[in-house]
């Protein structure tokens, strides 16, 4: 496995147009040092480690998408230079399933099979959707809704399909 690589970059506004957020462009030299084929990294910012994907930029290059919640928690602002350390994720397919979602999927085999048929990024989005709810009741409701939609063969985030 490649060694960790540290660098500084400016936190920029960016990301997909439907989801304005904060990004950090990863220099080509850093990408090369991470090793060929590295798509997921463990990124350490301000002493906090976060698993992230190296997302493709239009025209080439890669960037890290930093959620607003993470930036707020770390006190990061657009235009600020940030120090980062990246290392290839030793378990790039790992997904932290919240207990509520794990329980719902375990109780519903059709939903669990459908969940595992999705891409890693989609599974992470489903897990994050449940995990980010503050109240236990909301997490449970979101988990059940996702399981119902998955078992029915529907899109996990769209009520009608």
Automatic annotation (TrEMBL):
InterPro entries, A to Z: AF2212/PG0164-like_sf, DUF1905
Superkingdom, taxonomy of origin: Bacteria
Gene3D superfamilies the record matches: AF2212/PG0164-like
Pfam families registered for this protein in UniProt: DUF1905 (PF08922), OmdA (PF13376)
Protein name: DUF1905 domain-containing protein
Organism the protein comes from: Hymenobacter coccineus
């Amino acid at each position: 496995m490649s060694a960790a690589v540290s660098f500084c970059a400016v936190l920029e506004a960016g990301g997909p147009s439907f989801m304005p957020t904060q990004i950090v462009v990863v220099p080509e030299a850093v990408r090369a040092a991470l090793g060929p084929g590295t798509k997921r990294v463990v990124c350490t910012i301000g002493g906090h480690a976060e698993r992230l994907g190296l997302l493709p930029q239009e025209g080439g290059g890669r960037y890290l998408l930093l959620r607003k919640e993470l930036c707020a928690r770390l006190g990061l602002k657009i235009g600020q230079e940030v120090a980062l350390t990246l290392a290839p994720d030793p378990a790039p397919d790992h997904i932290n399933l919240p207990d509520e979602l794990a329980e719902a999927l375990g109780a519903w085999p059709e939903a669990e099979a459908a969940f595992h048929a999705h891409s890693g990024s989609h599974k992470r989005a489903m897990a994050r959707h449940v995990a980010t709810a503050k109240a236990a009741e909301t997490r449970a409701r979101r988990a059940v809704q996702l399981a119902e939609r998955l078992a029915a063969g529907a899109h996990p985030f769209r009520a009608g399909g």
